[in-house]
Design a protein that fits this description.
The chain is an alpha+beta fold and 211 residues long. The chain has one helix spanning 2-48; strands at 50-54, 69-73, 84-95, 101-119, 123-127, 132-135, 138-139, 160-161, 166-170, 188-189, 193-202, 208-209. 22% of the residues lie in helices and 35% in strands. A hairpin with a 4-residue loop joins strand 5 (123-127) and strand 6 (132-135).
Length: 211
């Protein structure tokens, strides 16, 4: 009787061990599947919705610095004042004497990062003596700029009303930036805006959202 009990205990223990091994394998398989789906989802998100961009140059100081790495939101359609955007600058949009947009090739032919200062229909005016920018008659925000706007690159005369489908951009480092004040950039077509900069991921001590 005792031998039968021992045998039954051993058999139950073996069955329990096998069951535990099955559950352990099932857990491992489930964990691998979850990790796979998470990685796939992240890859899809960064392929279609976001992109990592490296900043090149000082034109957005002190907001962004050379070699900063940022996340750009690609699904970006509602362009607003003060947004920081990445632009495909392969052409410059200037105005002829009648106020019509004239598009010419830009020697820059590269992606640039700037801040939107005025959108279609808004009127921008720059007092280069005082360094103050006005949008629709109201002094624009300037707490993010490195210095007052005193450099006129003579692409336009001011005040300037931004045509439909375009924006006026400037670098935060106002006197060391090729932007809409420059004939190399001019007005930026909204079709040439690649996305909005939303977050800085490097350097480590500057990680955070951007204004």
């Amino acid at each position: 009787m005792m031998a039968e009990n021992v045998e039954e205990i051993i058999q139950n223990a073996d069955e329990e061990k096998k069951q535990n091994e099955k559950e352990s394998k099932r857990f491992q398989i489930d964990s691998i599947e979850i990790a796979f789906f998470v990685m796939t989802a992240l890859m899809l998100i960064f392929t279609f919705l976001f992109s990592v961009v490296s900043i090149d140059g000082p034109s957005m100081m002190n907001t962004l610095h050379d070699k900063d790495r940022v996340i750009m939101e690609k699904a970006y359609f509602n362009v607003k004042d003060y947004d920081i955007v990445i632009i495909d600058c392969h052409e410059a949009n200037l105005l002829d004497t009648s106020g019509n947009v004239v598009t010419v090739d830009s020697y820059l032919d590269e992606n640039i990062v700037k801040r939107v200062m005025a959108t279609e229909g808004q009127t921008i005016d720059i007092d280069f003596e005082s360094g103050i920018v006005y949008v629709d008659g109201v002094e624009a925000e300037s707490d993010f700029t490195k210095e007052p706007t005193t450099l006129n690159r003579e692409a336009f005369s001011y005040p300037l009303t931004v045509p439909e489908g375009y924006v006026f951009v400037m670098g935060d480092n106002r006197n060391n930036s090729l932007d809409s004040r420059s004939p190399e950039v001019g007005l930026v077509s909204k079709d040439d805006i690649l996305g909005k900069v939303v977050f800085r991921i490097a350097p480590f001590n500057s990680i955070g959202s951007l204004k």
